[in-house]
Amino acid sequence: MSDLLLSSDLRGVATLTLDRPERHNAFDDALVASLTAALRQLAENEGVRLLVVRGAGRSFSAGGDIEWLRRMGGASFEENVGDAQALGRMMRLLDSFPKPTIAFVHGAAYGGGVGLVACCDIAIATERASFCLSEARLGIIPAAVGPFVIRAIGARQARRLMMTAEVFSAAAAREIGLVHEAPPEHAAEEALSRIVEALLRCAPGAQKHAKAFISHCASRAIDDELMQEAARILATLRCSAEGREGLSAFLEKRAPRWIGGGSDADVSQAADR
């Protein structure tokens, strides 16, 4: 994984750094494969509490590498389908990663780089960061990352940004919901540390179940069936070891002692009852 740096600390904070600074961390098939393998490895590592995704050098990610795009331009339809599916699978792995994810953006985030941001749970962009869904300039669309971007910013904003391929600022990205914070350059690392600490204070199992619950609810009508499922899920978590530890710690005015990778509760069975 010469194009990707993976590190972790004693707290369980893993960092994936796109490491093609000379190419502004642009995607090619090798980087997509490296990211796919790393995400699978980290998802299964019980020692990992959360994941930070960032880029080396001056940019977060400039999207598709021009040499990769040139090569795929001469490939067959079937080869292009397989290539696009590989990119989509990697994005889905990040989107469904079972632990909290943070995109830390500086410099340019173009094309697939915007997709990475949209797939993360939380996104911080320095105030000088810039964004662009640039594919229309090349006669294509950001189809592999489009579903994640549209979900993050809504169809109305996506129509403009995908059709104009215009560059927009970190402030604009925050306004449309692509990023959560856009601090000044000198305060960006502090903002990242603050969010990391907030995540580490919370129960890992509850975070995992929250992500699954949000995905489950996002496309559902709020009806009696959904509310019954929600009640059963909450009851299951309250009765879990993690839920009992959280309540005990609160009542005893002490820090909770979270154990391992998360809750022992089987929420999927609770929802099906």
Automatic annotation (TrEMBL):
Belongs to the enoyl-CoA hydratase/isomerase family. One of its GO terms (biological process) is isoprenoid catabolic process. It comes from the Bacteria. GO terms for molecular function: catalytic activity. InterPro entries: ClpP/crotonase-like_dom_sf, Enoyl-CoA_hydra/iso, Enoyl-CoA_hydra_C, Enoyl-CoA_Hydratase/Isomerase. This is Enoyl-CoA hydratase.
